[in-house]
TrEMBL record:
<feature type="transmembrane region" description="Helical">
    <location>
        <begin position="378"/>
        <end position="404"/>
    </location>
</feature>
<feature type="region of interest" description="Disordered">
    <location>
        <begin position="1"/>
        <end position="20"/>
    </location>
</feature>
<dbReference type="GO" id="GO:0015109">
    <property type="term" value="F:chromate transmembrane transporter activity"/>
</dbReference>
<keyword id="KW-0812">Transmembrane</keyword>
<feature type="transmembrane region" description="Helical">
    <location>
        <begin position="287"/>
        <end position="306"/>
    </location>
</feature>
<dbReference type="GO" id="GO:0005886">
    <property type="term" value="C:plasma membrane"/>
</dbReference>
<feature type="transmembrane region" description="Helical">
    <location>
        <begin position="131"/>
        <end position="150"/>
    </location>
</feature>
<keyword id="KW-0472">Membrane</keyword>
<dbReference type="InterPro" id="IPR014047">
    <property type="entry name" value="Chr_Tranpt_l_chain"/>
</dbReference>
<feature type="transmembrane region" description="Helical">
    <location>
        <begin position="180"/>
        <end position="195"/>
    </location>
</feature>
<feature type="transmembrane region" description="Helical">
    <location>
        <begin position="30"/>
        <end position="51"/>
    </location>
</feature>
<keyword id="KW-1003">Cell membrane</keyword>
<dbReference type="InterPro" id="IPR003370">
    <property type="entry name" value="Chromate_transpt"/>
</dbReference>
<feature type="transmembrane region" description="Helical">
    <location>
        <begin position="346"/>
        <end position="366"/>
    </location>
</feature>
<keyword id="KW-1133">Transmembrane helix</keyword>
<feature type="transmembrane region" description="Helical">
    <location>
        <begin position="100"/>
        <end position="119"/>
    </location>
</feature>
<feature type="compositionally biased region" description="Polar residues">
    <location>
        <begin position="10"/>
        <end position="19"/>
    </location>
</feature>
Length: 409
């Protein structure tokens, strides 16, 4: 019988570890993700900077190249890219359960906050708070540090730097939901002949993959079945819960890179369906900018307005489920692809493009929406110095940035 796959072999290897080691890995994954969920402000690109600081530099759970490859994979897939990177790190750290607790830890704080906002939106106005501006400046410092660190290793040399700069220019000048995916794909194709592997070149590090291909195929199949089946089920039933799951699952399935691109989809699914007013929708969007964590948790706020607390939970699970299925489904195949000698050049080009995309995001929307004058620049420079030179923890930088925004801006 050839039914035993690499998943079962991996499980047997993992099973040789002591149970306390597995539980410790899960606990560390949960606690680290929860800390990130409480302090990661600034949107998906800023989140990648926080992840890089924590998982690569401080914790050293994976190397620079593996992190960049994971970011490139998440950018290729529909769904919330930063959350998918966090899920991927959790999977490599502690298996499928590690991916789940990494997602839960990173997502739970903002979900709870936005559920509260759904009830307090009539008396709470986040748009006028100075500390929100301070948090935006924190995002500038975090992303600047990430770009500088990744550029030194992934965009070094004239050719890689050129790829990164071209990627930056294209993403800035072509504002489109598909621009990032297109740029990464073209950079990968150009890398096939620009970056041919050398005989003495160091091999790509092995990405830890505690799940196997059968599990990956199951997740990819489930993604397709739900994407096709939910609209059909909605068409033959009047169940309101099916309609909620279908709307939010579809929104999470059709967005590349996550972030603000999901907003028009959610507006069409909620406001145009008569579930809420446009004013309520926009108020919730403003509240979402004031909380840490992924922007997709906006679904928690919307779900509460539609069907109370149960609606918030269901909407959150539905919008994140496609991204979870895709990243878990693709990861077992990603390791073989990235270690193929023929594709090393492609991944080199893709990694350089990721640096360019991060650099573009540092300028717009992060810099343009945060730095409006000399005082903002001074605060940003000070926060960057705390991270870069004095090695201050990100949570302390977040607190100081918020206080500076509240009392100085």
């Amino acid at each position: 019988m050839n039914l035993q796959t690499d998943k079962e072999q991996t499980q047997s290897q993992v099973g040789n570890r002591q149970p306390s080691g597995r539980w410790r890995a899960l606990g560390e994954t949960w606690w680290t993700a929860l800390q990130l969920g409480l302090t990661s402000f600034g949107g998906p690109i800023a989140h990648l900077g926080y992840f890089h600081q924590t998982y690569v530099r401080r914790k050293q759970w994976l190397d620079e190249k593996s992190y960049a490859d994971l970011v490139a994979l998440a950018q290729f897939l529909p769904g919330p890219a930063s959350s998918q990177v966090g899920i991927g790190v959790g999977v490599m750290r502690a298996g499928l359960w590690g991916g789940l607790v990494a997602w839960l830890g990173f997502t739970l704080p903002s979900v709870l906050m936005l559920m509260i906002f759904a009830y307090l939106m009539q008396t709470f106005d986040p748009g006028s708070a100075g500390w929100i501006q301070g948090l935006k400046i924190v995002a500038v410092a975090i992303v600047a540090q990430a770009v500088l660190g990744m550029a030194g290793k992934l965009a070094s040399g004239p050719v890689r730097a050129a790829v990164a700069l071209i990627a930056m220019a294209v993403v800035l000048l072509w504002q489109s939901p598909v621009s990032q995916v297109t740029v990464i794909a073209l950079a990968g194709l150009s890398g096939l002949w620009l970056f041919k592997p050398q005989a003495n070149e160091e091999a790509a590090p092995e990405m830890k993959m505690p799940i196997g291909r059968r599990a990956g195929l199951f997740c990819l199949g489930a993604f397709v079945v739900l994407l096709v089946g939910l609209p059909l089920l909605k068409g033959v039933t009047d169940n309101g819960w099916v309609a909620i799951v279908d709307s939010f699952y579809r929104a999470g399935s059709l967005v590349f890179g996550g972030g603000h691109v999901v907003l028009p989809l959610l507006e069409s699914e909620t406001v145009l369906n008569g579930w809420m007013s446009k004013e309520d929708f926009l108020t919730g969007y403003g509240a979402t900018q004031a909380v840490p964590g992924p922007l997709f948790t906006f679904a928690a706020y919307l779900g509460v307005l539609i069907q109370g607390i149960p609606g918030g939970i269901v909407a959150t699970l539905a919008i994140f489920l496609p991204g979870f299925l895709l990243i878990v489904g693709a990861m077992p195949f990603w390791n073989g692809i990235r270690r193929s000698p023929k594709l090393q050049g492609m991944l080199t080009g893709m990694n350089a493009a990721v640096v360019g995309i991060l650099l573009a995001a540092l300028y717009h929307p992060i810099w343009t929406s945060s730095i409006h004058g000399p005082l903002e620049f001074v605060i940003g420079a000070g926060l960057f110095g705390m991270l870069m030179f004095w090695k201050s923890p990100p949570w302390l930088v977040v607190i100081i940035g918020a206080l500076a925004g509240q009392f100085l801006l």
